[in-house]
Amino acid sequence: QVLASGGLVAQITDSRVYAAEYYPGVFDRASAQALTLAVSTERTGIDFVLGSGRTISGQITTQMTGQPPQPLTFGTIHAVPADLDDPDFESWRSTSHSVQTFDGTGNYTIEGLWPGSYYIHTTTFAGPYADAIYPGVYEFSSATAVDTSVANQENIDISLQQGATLRGNVTGADSNAALEGVSVTINRKNALSDNFLSQTLYG
After folding, report:
1. pTM
2. Residue 51 β-bridge partners
3. Hey, which residues does 110 pair with through a beta bridge?
4. C-alpha 161: how far from its chain's center?
5. How far is C-alpha 42 from the geometric centre of its chain's CA atoms?
6. What is the DSSP string of 64-111?
7. pLDDT grade, residue 202 (50/70/90)?
């Protein structure tokens, strides 16, 4: 590929089991080697050897009031970098590290993670259960970060509880008539991003 001359950094990503890396085999942009290219030159040997990333695994269950726990069979589990002040992690906020499939027992495994700390967050796409962050809280300030700096982490389980319900009407100020086709988005006041712990209702 034709590139502009000057100082560049190279990054490779893989959506499977390998962790994304910067050249020459580091995980953060600050440690990457700058590649200086002069006009009309070619540089070879910029090779990557990808290592397996860290994994976080566990089980997600649901708990209706007065009922025994049941495995979550549909939803998304996100690994959100705990160090959100680091701009290198900015692009991983939502679904870059996530899993959307379960084996029928609510078990999940998120692969290809950089060594570091993550908040594990659930998205259930509406329904009666409130989304939560490990170990089952609703604010990032109360969450426990899962540290993969040294090793993979297992048994990161979350029990989703029955959520509350908000009801209301949307009318036009000019006619007081009910409006159709509008959406109402409910966000937690202290969420890090509107992408998390939010729900959009259509009517």
Report:
1. 0.69
2. none
3. 56
4. 20
5. 37
6. -TTS--EE--S-EEEEEES-TTSGGGGGGSSSSSEE----SSSEEEEE
7. very low
